[in-house]
Amino acid sequence: MRRLRNTFTAALVIILLVGVDGLQNARAENNGLERRPVLGWSSWSFLREHPTAAKIDAQARALQQSGLQKIGYNYVNLDDRWYQCPGRQGPNVDPYGRWVTDASRFPADGDTNGIKVVADYIHSLGMKFGIYVTPGISKQAVSKNTPIKGTNYTAAQIAEPSVAESNYNCRGMVAINYNKPGAQEYTNSWVDMLVTWGVDYIKIDGMSDRNAVDVKAWSTAIRQSGRPMVLDVTQGSFTRAIAPTLMKYANQWEFAPDVECYECEKGGSSYPLTNWANVEKRFNYVAEWQSYSGPGGFNDYDSIEVGNGSNNGLTPVERQTQMSLWALGSAPLILGVDLTHLNQLDLQKYLKNTAVLAVDQDSIAAKRVLNDSDRQVFAKTEPNGDVIVGLFNTGTKAEKVAIQASAVGLPERERGYSAQNLWTGNVEKQGRVIRAIVPSHGVVLYRVKVI
Q1: Is residue 196 pLDDT above 60, yes or no?
Q2: SS3 for 179?
Q3: CA dist 302 to 3, 234, 258, 274, 326, Å?
Q4: Which residue spans within 274-318 are E strands per DSSP?
Q5: In this structure, are strands 39-42 and 333-335 parallel, antiparallel, or unpaired?
Q6: Relative to the CA of 2, which of 20, 85, 136, 151 has its CA 20 to 30 Å away?
């Protein structure tokens, strides 16, 4: 891509980011955060159950040194297994029933907790730090009947031992009854602890429809803490029945199964990170959840697995498709790859494509306007009248994908339209039908303007 085009698209990103901050969505969490989707990196896809302070620090440095931080990738999120997990009796707990940092992975620095050490380092790079939790309370806290900090209540008084909560890799969590005195105070104490560590983003995983009360409780706890934190709700299994709660109390939510292809992995590694089948599943999710997204709260379709070349598990064409679909859905772009071994094609052509990034950062979720066998079209209209059109081919051979200009929201114009292909930079004229030959599993992503 030529330097002039890079300059133009970078400016476009800045214009969109400034403009979006003024948008309001009364339905979404109004905590001043995520007026546009989060950009960053998370440890799960690549590091899985083996994160350490050294590994997280290295990924944060690579995010900065790659130039991705400069274009907005600003969150470094530590996923599961940062805490002590002795077995299915649940995570080890401190005197107040909260998880204990695994110091063998995240060593303390004097009196400074090991997680805070990492958070401080990430902050020193000018980035924000996220952490992973799951709903409920550890069975160990219940069996020890630990006190709830700042109250006369105890863990056993707020727990529902017969109701298991999802903690996929450690187990041993049971539900909290938020009708019981002390329950909200327990969650408050959790968030207060995370505040002392410098956490900016909380991912609460393993959530189902019945966990709506937990979403509200964690939101309440964040508010009472006084520290702005993104609340990311991810699923064990939830449906659109929980959407009103998510929009009111959370900043982003992931309702889709993991994008990782666990059954594809070879040689004990996390490669390949995903496959086409797991990306293809997202088309219906993007369409079905479109109406719930907006500034303050976004649909999360899971990690972007672009950056490690063939280890992504996707062809170059499929990588464009994943990024295009997420961008059309205005989803958080959270990289799951090994940033310390970035493939230069992935980095320069895909991850640093600011024209596509601008589509994601407009905070507008596209509608599906065509779903015809292997051909799908998603579109959205920008505040300046440009229309973003994604022509997708999910089939096994190249096909022509076409849609009436009026069907994507373009006004009738006899002179036609100017369409810039956001992946190639080429500009072409289109008539009353927006069309392209799209490769198998591919996309043509246009920014269409009236001539």
Answers
A1: yes
A2: coil
A3: 31, 9, 7, 11, 9
A4: 298-300
A5: parallel
A6: 20
